[in-house]
What we know:
This protein is of the alpha+beta class.
Amino acid sequence: MFLLPLTFAALLVAARPVRADNLNLELTELAKDVQKLLKGRNETAVAVGQFVPLPGTNASAGPAIAKGLTEELVRLHVDVRLRANLTVEGRYGLSEDAKSGRLAVSLHVKIVDKAGEEIVGLKLNPRGIFGDAIMAALEGLTYDLPPNADGKERDKRIEYSAENPHAYLENTRINAPGGKPFAIEILVKGADGKFTPRAAYEKEGLAFVELKNNEVYRVRVINGADYEAAVTLTVDGLNMFTFSEIKDPKYPDKPLYDRLLVGRRGSFAIPGWHRTNEKNGSNEFQVTKYADSEAAKLYANSANVGTVTVTFAAAWADEKSRPTDEPKNPDSHARSADLGTKRGAETGDRYNEQTREFGVTRAAISVRYSK
């Protein structure tokens, strides 16, 4: 299912098939482990602390991990409090999964007491979060992936991009690497209400854009391909549909949508956090002190940057329009102070729903922002 803005250019797509993503699947299992350990100590309540990136990782997705874990704990009827005798917290970063040998975001979790000391005997095994798109969103990666590459080759390219980052800047555009026909721009709202592109700059191989406190911005996604592109957008680890009021009938606490569709050789300026498909159904992206951001409202985050990540995949309405290089049997992982971002004033954009198939992740583009 997709939604088409009245101004055209982009469509919203429902998760296809309707199921939990790899992050939610792992957090579901983690929540079960936490529940079991709590029962073993006759504890009924727990606090969810910070999830921070491993040293050397410049990412800001901790609040999204904490939010997802809290939702799964609540679903298991665990009493999640702001303060409790025990707190579950952790770190995350790219590593090779010991069992499968595949690249994943490894989530290292521990349970600590009020003094911050790890509780002996309450050991939680690391969990691997797989998936090309989710790894890009959690780690803030920029990469290109040949659609027909096997899983090992895709892993190698993702790992190389993480260890050897490079920003592909062209005027105000932040391009995908490898000649891929995708790009993004950050558009900033001026005093006259108009949005204009703001040039990014490179720092240690990473793309950054200067965003001042309380500035309102949009993310223009550009598809230069001869096929439609299914696009995911995350800001500070949170999908743009995190606050959507349109829920999945099979999973009432989950948003129905998780991505947009951009037309062939088209572009669309994403107006903000999706709430509904009606006019004024989005809240603007607005830069603010991190303590006042949507991410910080959910859970604290020690990251000193914010991160916008966009991933691109091909999309098609029928087999006739399916790109010829789209694999028939793709790798299972292929699909799928400080400043922050908060919901701002409503925008006037409206969406209509459509249906499409979408393929493997072909590229990811990330840009960071800070003071």
